[in-house]
Amino acid sequence: MDLSDIHHLLSERASAFLQRGTHDLFIDGQWSAAHSGQRLTTVNPASEAVIAQVANACPQDVDRAVRAAHRAFHEGPWGRMRPVDRERLMLRLADLIETHAQALAEVESLDNGKSAAIARAVDLNMAIDSLRYMAGWATKIDGLTREHNVPFAPDAQMFTYTRREPVGVVAAVVPWNFPLLMALWKIGPALAAGCTIVLKPAEQTPLTALMLAELVQEAGFPPGVVNVITGDGPGTGAPLVSHPLVNKVSFTGSTEVGKLIGHACMDNMTRVTLELGGKSPVIVLDDCDPATAAAGAANAIFFNHGQVCCAGSRLYVHKKMFDRVVADVADHAAKLTLGHGLDPGAQMGPLVSQEQMERVCGYIDIGRSQGAEVVTGGGRAGQRGYFVQPTVLTGVQPDHRVAREEIFGPVLVAMPYDDLDEVAARANDTPFGLGASIWSNNLSKVHRLIPKIQAGTVWVNCHSTLDPGMPFGGYKQSGFGRDLGRAALDSYLETKSVFIQL
Ligand code: NAP
Ligand code: MG
């Protein structure tokens, strides 16, 4: 499908946005081209057609955006605004996102490849709820008053209290798998805390961040509170995260880039939250109904085409029902309908880019070359668009690359195990620790397993379930800090201790 073929399928706002063709940077409440005049193109991964051109921000643009955020934080009305007024603006933005949710889902689908219907139901609903959840925190940021306990001034009259203060200018760098949702996971707590933001979406999926910027404008946020700059990692992301006026970086993406960003932040003592990769285990205990386990395991890996940081990419099934569960998962995989994200019948779309398709297919080949057996799938689907067949591999040893490295595609590695201690050890035998699911109704075994699993989230009889109030983040090399919940809000606040001798 070409862009001209699909306009009739789109809502008015999505169509009008796309018809503009080229998009500028949103800095200090205004739209402007990149200083260099350079642009990047973004494609629809289902058709490989170019859908838009966006500005490629260079270090001068980054500096302008950070300075706008710095001014908005220190000088503008935002810093003086009552928390309840911040909350009202955030709720207005959430309402606007809801009003235009269908258009945002359509553009997300075209830019990323995912199903528009699923984007509307999952990405948009979660984005709206997360923003509303965080808006509620704006009026509930409290310090403490304490009786003083100063050891060397026992007789002093002293008033001691703590203040929670916004950390300042936030740089948010987000990936392409849930573009708008990841942006709002960062923007929500930052705004609730009273921070200002410069957001850089991934170069593959810049469009919904730009639509969001329009809604920020419509909601009436003061200029410079939210800035959106498009560009690539080295040219835009790197100068942004190392800018000396940035007080906090919030990043979601690969562990490799997360480490680079962590180092850059340390140089300036910039606060940092890193939401990184995973290789999350799905653990099926011997009491579980095989059909339930198979349906759950299939969803855990194939949702969002496996491009999920907490995707259940390693399946451990008790040996007594390994063959049955694997056969059922393979059956689910083989029945998935691949198609264009705007096709309501499509259950799985293409991967985000040619690079990602080649990476994922490369991993399937590596699996084969190390001795894996392809139960279903096994490579690219079709000749046009970046589609990859949902794939299940068996015969994989724990040290094989497909069992250890994040593939970030619809590729499941299934392995049998014998007993509970063994499966706990194998589940933890990875540098990652983002999520894990356990499939069982044996309470005793489930509760014995939960404390042993080294992961930021453990699901029981579900996988990848999220709630705006439940912290999400990684143990080990899956990251540093948490998104969502009060834990996320706290990471956008400093604590100031005040001593007043009376
Ligand atoms: P990535 O390289 O980590 O990109 C994530 C974000 O960081 C993008 O906005 C990217 O910009 C930016 N970035 C890249 N290099 C940077 C730098 N030196 N300084 C500052 N920002 C930088 O992820 P990717 O290339 O999109 O995907 C590669 C792999 O990462 C995937 O295959 C997967 O394993 C993992 N991944 C994980 C998650 C997750 O949620 N945990 C999400 C996406 C990807 P540009 O994209 O514009 O270069
Ligand atoms: Mg794209």
Structure explained in plain terms:
The longest helix is centred in the first third of the chain and has 22 residues, at 116-137. The mean pLDDT is 97. This protein has two domains: 3-276 and 479-498, Aldehyde Dehydrogenase, Chain A, domain 1; 280-468, Aldehyde Dehydrogenase, Chain A, domain 2 (3-Layer(aba) Sandwich), CATH 3.40.309.10. It contains 17 helices and 21 strands. The strands form five sheets. A seven-stranded mixed β-sheet has the order 15-16-17-14-13-18-19, with helices on both faces. The termini are far apart. Helices cover 40% and strands 20% of the residues. The protein is an alpha/beta fold and 502 residues long. Helix 2 packs across helix 5 (101-112), helix 6 runs parallel beside helix 7 and helix 11 (290-302) crosses helix 12 (322-335). The protein has helices at 3-6, 12-19, 59-74, 83-99, 101-112, 116-137, 179-193, 207-219, 233-241, 255-268, 290-302, 322-335, 354-369, 401-404, 420-428, 443-449, 485-490; strands at 22-23, 25-27, 30-32, 39-43, 50-55, 145-146, 158-166, 169-173, 196-200, 226-228, 248-252, 271-275, 280-284, 312-318, 373-376, 391-394, 411-417, 435-439, 457-460, 479-480, 493-501. It is globular and about 75 Å long. Bound molecules: NADP nicotinamide-adenine-dinucleotide phosphate and magnesium ion (MG). Residues 42-43, 111, 204-205 line the site of magnesium ion.
- CATH fourth-tier homologous superfamily of the largest domain: Aldehyde Dehydrogenase, Chain A, domain 1
Question: How many strands in all?
Answer: 21
Which ligands appear in the coordinates? NADP nicotinamide-adenine-dinucleotide phosphate, magnesium ion
Q: What's the number of helices?
A: 17
Helix content: 25-40%
Overall 3D geometry? globular
Q: Look up the CATH topology of the largest domain.
A: Aldehyde Dehydrogenase, Chain A, domain 1
Question: How many distinct folded domains?
Answer: 2
Overall residue-averaged pLDDT value: 97
How far do the termini sit from each other?
74 Å
> Given the helix and strand composition, which structural class is it?
alpha/beta
